Amino acid sequence: MKKGIYVILAPMVLLSIVGIFAFKEKAITRSETTTTSEYSQPKSQSVNWISLEEAEKLNKTAPKKFLIDLYTNWCGWCKVMDQKVYSDAKVYEYINTNFYAVKLNAEQKESVIFQGKTYAFNPALGKTGINQLAFDWGSTEGRIGYPTLVFLDENLVKLEADPGYKEVPQMLQKLKFYGDNKYKTMNWQQFQQGN
């Protein structure tokens, strides 16, 4: 009887272990500082993620809005958005056409320079510390959640920080609200009712 249980359980345990390693192999890895090359899908099939520094530089000669994805290495929903939302052709094509897309690890220890100002890691923020710029952009009432999408206009003025996971239809709607300049003539609720 015991031998029969082992015969049944051994393959199940083995498959579970193989499945865990396979999932880890496919998982998107994020580092403290993100560059375009770390998201190695072909550009025609993914969001063109660039550094904040590069986006600022490009914006001087070809102004666009910014989409900033605030994430952490431990954030499960951030990884799901990478796999299911940012990989959608309608999403990445719209982002690449209308925004400079930047990923910012909110818990990175390295300082971030934006508009000539240096933003340091602040260990007093959150449970494990947060970069001050990420906190300034993404916090609501002193709290921050992940992922948080931050939208900046062409003049680098924050339009909104929108926390939480978005499915593809929600993401497209939010992108078009800012990308098509609808926010200039109506509020979010009016836009949602019309779409």
What would a concise description of this structure say?
By secondary structure, this protein is an alpha/beta fold. Helix content is 42%, strand content 19%. The chain has one domain: Glutaredoxin, CATH 3.40.30.
How is this structure best described in words?
By secondary structure, the chain is an alpha/beta fold. It has one domain: Glutaredoxin. It is 42% helix and 19% strand. The protein has seven helices and nine strands. The strands form three sheets. Strands 1-3-2-8-9 form a five-stranded mixed beta sheet. β8 and β9 form a beta hairpin. α4 packs parallel to α6. The protein starts with a helix and ends with a helix. 26% of the residues are buried. About 20% of the residues have low confidence.
- Count the beta strands: 9
- SSE string: HEHEHHEEEEEHEEHH
Shape: globular
Q: What's the end-to-end separation, in Å?
A: 62 Å
Instruction: Give the neighbour order of strands across the main sheet.
Output: 1-3-2-8-9
Rg from Cα: 20 Å
Number of DSSP helices? 7
Query: CATH superfamily membership, which one?
Result: Glutaredoxin
Report the sheet with the most strands, covering strand number, pairing sense and barrel closure.
5 strands, mixed
